[in-house]
Amino acid sequence: MYVILMYDMGEKRVGKMLKLCRQYLNWIQNSVFEGEISEVKLKELISRAEFIMNEEEHDSLIVFKSRDQKWLEKEVIGHEKNDLDQFL
Which residues of the sequence carry a binding annotation for Mg(2+) (predicted)? Predict the structure, then answer.
């Protein structure tokens, strides 16, 4: 499945969440990630994220899901932080 994930964390936990999400998805802008991921890997990511989150400080994680990226039109206005079309 294709997902767009975004989070809002207290600044003490932002670095940990960034590092975690980069293990599973492509970082596209500050606290926003996208990419193909299996249902099992997504559940694993969410479980690990919940361990980092602090409910008392109103941390949140939002995941938009689609069967495939082709069902989602993406338009970038301005500079794209992480160009996914570049190959090393």
Answer: 8
